[in-house]
Amino acid sequence: MPILEKSSGNLNNINNKRLVVKKLFARQQHEGFGAVVRRSIGRFELRYFDPFLVLDEFSVSSPSGFPDHPHRGFETVTYMLEGEILHEDCEGHKGVIREGGLQWMTAGKGIVHSEMPSSNANGITHNKGLQLWINLSSKHKLVEPSYQEIESKDIAEAEKDGVRVRVIAGEWNGVKSKICTRTPTMYLDFILSPGSRISQPIPLHWNAFVYVLQGQGHFGDARSQAAAHHLLILGQGGDRLEAWNSSDSGLPLRFILVGGEPINEPMVQFGPLVMNTQEEIDQTVDDIENFTNGFEKARHWRSQAASALGLF
Ligand code: FJE
Ligand code: FE
Question: Which residues lie with the beta carbon below 6 Å from any ligand 1 atom?
Fold first, then answer.
């Protein structure tokens, strides 16, 4: 458990490092229609890391993907690392999330959509990215659905002392993301060249994790090393993360650092439906079956991508 490593004499733990309290390797599993995900948050060993419900490193090659499915009560954040994904929803919202680009979707009261490799993916067989599910507090669960989309070239970026940062949410050294988060969240994509390091502030009471994408690094202290596909849960009791590239092959270290303010409410999840009580889940299942309370437009809607694959 997170124990204060050294006493600073300050009850607020200012200037204390956060340490890694749990390390998980994300194995591959099958999800959707022929898609492969490495799930770290949201699997049996780590059901919920308030406010984070799921973290999937996904890979889809045509013909595969995530055909028509509903969401209610949370947000999905899709960040493409390679290739692209076509999304279509029952409200008529449609688009392609390209390499390096971001879609921050507030499902709120309800959306039915598909997420599939785009047909003109020009022979790119591997479309890879990260999808993070962030819970919404009870007062935001039933907001109108909305999207925030940012192309790669418009994602805030900064570089200093061998550290490159892409600011997905929150800010780094005064460089701010334009994403509005309903659940206060920071999401930084770090690329550290060999020999470089960071000391990154994280709000004291937030839950925070690292997910390593590439290379090798140390996180928190010299005892904690990790490589690609590992999730590191950071303990409480500190206001910053120290990390450094410890690759011995001269490769960059790439990882995301994500933090969020815990919601501290009861959470009941039924797949892509996340509410506070079982009654609200039962109501949601009713709404999906009867096309009510936000699911009206799903009655006659089928995504083009899944239709083209003959999935109906
Ligand atoms: C799914 C419910 C879902 N991980 N990573 C049930 F919503 C999904 C689903 C996804 C998903 C989509 C993308 Cl683009 C990336 C994802 C789960 O759509 F797979 C199941 N089984
Ligand atoms: Fe989805």
Answer: 31-32, 37, 56, 58, 66, 69, 78, 85, 115, 131, 271-272
Ligand closest to the CA atom of residue 81: 1
Spatial strand order of the sheet with 74-82 comes to 28-31, 35-39, 52-60, 127-135, 74-82, 102-106, 146-150
Q: Report yes or no: 279 and 67 within 8 Å, Cβ to Cβ.
A: no
Contact in structure between 130 and 83 (CB atoms under 8 Å): no
pTM: 0.95
Which of these, 55, 60, 61, 157, lies nearest to 100 by C-alpha position? 157
Comparing C-alpha atoms, which of 45, 62, 43 is closest to residue 53?
43
SS3 (DSSP) at 288: helix
CA of 114 to the centre of ligand 2 (A): 6
C-alpha–C-alpha distance, residues 46 and 248, integer Å:
31
Annotated binding-site ranges for Fe cation: 69, 71, 113, 115
Is the Cβ–Cβ distance between 17 and 220 less than 8 Å? yes
- Residue of 41, 66, 75 to mutate, ligand 1, most atoms within 8 A of C-beta: 66
For the stretch 68-112, pLDDT in tens is 999 999 999 999 999 999 999 999 999 999 999 999 999 999 999
Pairing type for strands 225-227 and 230-234 reads: unpaired
